[in-house]
Design goal:
single chain, 16% strand, alpha/beta, Rossmann fold, binds nicotinamide-adenine-dinucleotide, globular, six-stranded parallel beta sheet, 11 helices
């Protein structure tokens, strides 16, 4: 039985508390700036509220980062330096450089870093992936992904509404689809974004061009169907099992970093109106 600290008690802090309950891990501590929310999440897991990461670190084996994206780097570096394994919510970081520093720090500390690219744990997405792999639906020519959601209005201090801290929907939301597109079709070579004004009801078609199949295109833009398994629980079970039994992760931190690289290119393309060609990321040691 490993001991866990949940950092952040917003939407994902609550979701992760439910996921951990489906494992034999023990959530011992919750850290968040909003005390009421921290108490709520702690009550869900029979945990205590701690004042900060330093206070809870000696008590745990795993740090589960459900903090706003711009804080992922700072808290991952501290947790890695203390020798803790890390589950970090997606996107891995606000920038590629921050993500690289996180991977390097975890490698240097010999701790495991996993990023919650949860789409791969949705049964419908997995089914389409398996059908492609098994040759049941032929070769991938066009992959069209659509993600529709409401604008989050209750994020902590409205961090989500600040593109500098969240990357906005082009990074924060569509990072799910960038990861899925890469999983399905391989590396992405070019990204082109047309973005309507960033007000309510805005749309952002992002076209990514795969490297392996010239001419193959993915239009990113969730299918609605009943879930057999809660993917947010499945992903925590997967992480916990892999850490406990030293198994590989289904999604590597490098996959998560590649998805962020596509998101940053999508932001750049939206700003310039021009396609952005991706350069392969160097291996992080
Ligand atoms: N996998 C998914 O489908 C999914 C869905 C939503 C959000 N996310 C990601 O999860 C992360 C968290 O998003 P959220 O929606 O839960 O955010 P949120 O705004 O709902 O909650 C953020 C929490 O962080 C705490 N916090 C902020 N600064 C802190 C600090 N310095 N020290 C300690 N606690 C601090 C706040 O008190 C709050 O409890 C983001 O990276 C987001 O992109 C993933």
């Amino acid at each position: 039985m490993l001991r866990v600290a949940i950092l952040g008690a917003g939407s994902m802090g609550h979701t992760h508390a439910a996921g951990w309950a489906a494992t034999d891990a023990k959530v011992v501590g919750v850290v968040a700036l909003d005390r009421g929310a921290a108490e709520e999440v702690a009550a869900l897991c029979g945990a205590a509220v701690y004042q900060g990461l330093d206070a809870v670190l000696p008590q745990v084996d795993i740090v589960d980062i459900c903090l706003p994206t711009y804080l992922h780097l700072e808290f991952t570096l501290k947790a890695a330096a203390a020798g803790k394994h890390i589950f970090c919510e997606k996107p891995i970081a606000r920038t590629v450089e921050d993500g690289q520093k996180m991977i390097a720090a975890c490698n240097a500390a010999g701790v495991r870093l996993f990023v919650g690219q949860v789409i791969r744990f949705f049964p419908q997405y997995r089914k389409a992936y398996d059908a492609l792999q098994d040759g049941k639906i032929g070769n991938l020519a066009v992959l069209r992904l659509t993600r529709v959601g409401y604008r989050p209005h209750s994020s902590f201090e409205n961090w989500f509404g600040d593109v500098n801290r969240s990357g906005g929907p082009l990074l924060d939301v569509l990072v799910h689809d960038y990861d899925y597109a890469r999983w399905m079709g391989g590396e992405i070579e070019r990204v082109y974004t047309r973005c309507s004004p960033p007000d309510a009801g805005s749309t952002a078609p992002v076209t990514t061009y795969f490297k392996a199949a010239p001419g193959a295109v993915a239009d990113v833009g969730i299918p609605l169907s009943p879930l057999e398994v809660d993917p947010y629980t499945a992903i925590i079970q997967h992480f916990y099992d892999a850490v406990q039994h030293d198994k590989p992760f289904a999604v590597t931190p490098e996959d998560a970093l590649a998805a962020v690289q596509i998101g940053i290119a999508a932001l750049e393309s939206a700003a310039t109106g021009k396609p952005v060609t991706l350069t392969p990321l160097p291996e992080v040691n």
